[in-house]
Specification:
Length: 242
């Protein structure tokens, strides 16, 4: 277990959490606010509302909403106002859920990662920050992998970044967290225990995952292209036969 020196100079032992030990536990986190808007052609799409990009909050029009003509300029200004207000309310609930979740994580670490005799030694916010850093394991995510694919391996497929090209692959009827499964696959293929695997720095884990998965992704994309080529040929042959 990692040793952590506290501000007092006392050293405590901290158990490192498992890679996915906290998944599905504790108060649920609320995601970003999504809203629906209409494109010029009438198609409706969902998007994430970016409150930080709003420099001047929209004000409600002076004319009451019930007196406004549908789809008029004032109608859309009311829609904009209501959407902004809904986003504000949602952000408040999201921050509350985040605070509740972080409090739960702190309690979980206290109860599961520290020895009972060490808990009383952790006195200051800085002490707890050091304990949390030792207990929590950063996870490889898509942004890090995309950077490693490009920066380390210059991985592309037909001129497109490889991870973006991978998104074209048909997932079938199943679904799962791809990158998490890659982490577990790498641990198994390296023959390491979870503890030994998590001793690897985050960047090293990402580089190794990329080295294993890039050839597999390219092979899958090549097979998918061949499948589509055969489908086109069969369709063309069918048209020729009438």
């Amino acid at each position: 277990m990692p040793e952590v020196e506290l501000e007092s100079g006392v050293t405590v032992l901290v158990r490192r959490l498992g890679l996915f030990e906290l998944e599905g536990k504790g108060p649920a986190l609320i995601g970003p606010f999504l809203y629906e808007y209409e494109l010029p052609g009438g198609q409706k799409v969902m998007a994430e509302y970016d409150l930080l990009s709003v420099t001047t909050p929209p004000e409600p029009p002076s004319i009451p909403e019930e007196e406004v003509e549908p789809r008029s300029e004032l109608y859309w200004r009311w829609i904009e106002y209501h959407t902004y207000q809904a986003a504000l309310r949602h952000e408040g609930r999201r921050q509350e859920s985040l605070a509740a979740h972080l409090t739960w994580v702190s309690t979980y670490i206290r109860d599961n990662c520290l020895r009972p005799q060490d808990v009383a030694q952790v006195l200051t916010p800085e002490d707890w920050l050091r304990v949390h850093r030792a207990a929590l394991v950063p996870q490889v995510d898509r942004a890090l992998l995309a950077d490693v694919f490009q920066r380390v391996y210059q991985a592309e497929y037909d001129g497109e970044p490889l991870l973006e090209a991978m998104d074209r692959l048909k997932p079938g009827s199943g679904s799962y967290e791809v990158i998490r499964s890659w982490e577990v696959q790498l641990q198994i293929e390296m023959g390491l225990s979870e503890t030994a695997y998590l001793d690897l720095p985050l960047e090293e884990r990402a580089v190794k995952i990329a080295a294993v998965q890039i050839p597999r992704i390219i092979e899958s994309l090549t097979m998918e292209d061949e499948r589509r080529r055969l489908e086109r040929e069969r369709a063309q042959e069918k048209v020729k036969r009438g």
